[in-house]
Specification:
alpha/beta; 2 domains; 11 strands; 18% strand; two-stranded antiparallel ribbon; Rossmann fold; 330 residues; seven-stranded mixed beta sheet
Amino acid sequence: MKHLIRKLLRRLGYDLIWFEPDSKQVSSSLDAKLREIYRAHDLLSGTVICTDPRTGNISYLKTPFLVEEVVEEMSRLALESVNACLSPYLQMPPETIREYVLEFIDLYPRRPIAHNVGGATFHNCFWLYLMCRCIQPTLVIESGVWKGQTSWVIRQAAPDAKLHCFEIKFPSQLAFRDEAIGYHEHDWSEFGVGNVDPQRSLIHFDDHVNQARRVEEAHRRGFMHLLFDDNFPAYQIHKDTKLIVPTIDMLFDPRIKTGVRLDWFNQGDQSCTIDETSCLEARGLIAKWQNFPTVEPESQAYKARLGGHGANSKFAYVQLEPGGDSAPGH
């Protein structure tokens, strides 16, 4: 069976590697060979086909011109999305974006958490890294840290930035901890940020908190660049067990009005009623926003041949209107 599968995949330009680690091996202690397999796979698709390394069944692309096609597609997506986000303040040249993409491809296999269940994986880490590299922030706020994967990404992309990480309670064992990072066990809104340079500061929200509230807090303190995870549209609210209402997407949904009740089932019946006033206030502070396209290089390239476009993710960029008490001049 292995021979037949390998023969078929080689006709399609793929190679299939079967790896059978020692039965005593556990996922937390991958040997060098398995790490190289993950490195090669992550290099090309950013998703791990085999989530349990002990099974050993992993395949990845090796054909050079197809590898280059994947890199080009990722660079094209990154150039379009990053420049759309950062205009009119900043525009990145194609060669710089490609350089950042290659940096991330080389970096990601060295991440501290191989399988970050419940946290950021390739897609979010990719866009977080690129936005940090482009903005080159001097101050980064991270609200919602989980095990520290995204803190690590931010530190790699912006090593000189002041990074403050917030959780109501940190996990007992962070997979990544840096003595240069400020760790705070309270809500970020209770922290004194001082003067904020809007164009050189960034907030990453992955905290399952009302996103309209987060927009108002960030604007009041003078921030411009925000990143939000879990930006679900209203029709997908049932997909997350941790309630977030409203999301950025919902702020701009004309159907979401005062008194509208949203009902769904997720581990039991749930519902909420919308307060349009707070939605309107937050919406008025947003200059523009967009979800990043899903980074699935192989499928993106295939869709491009058909004249289509990749699906959007739930990871969003928000650019706020100028203002706030902590911005220079206030």
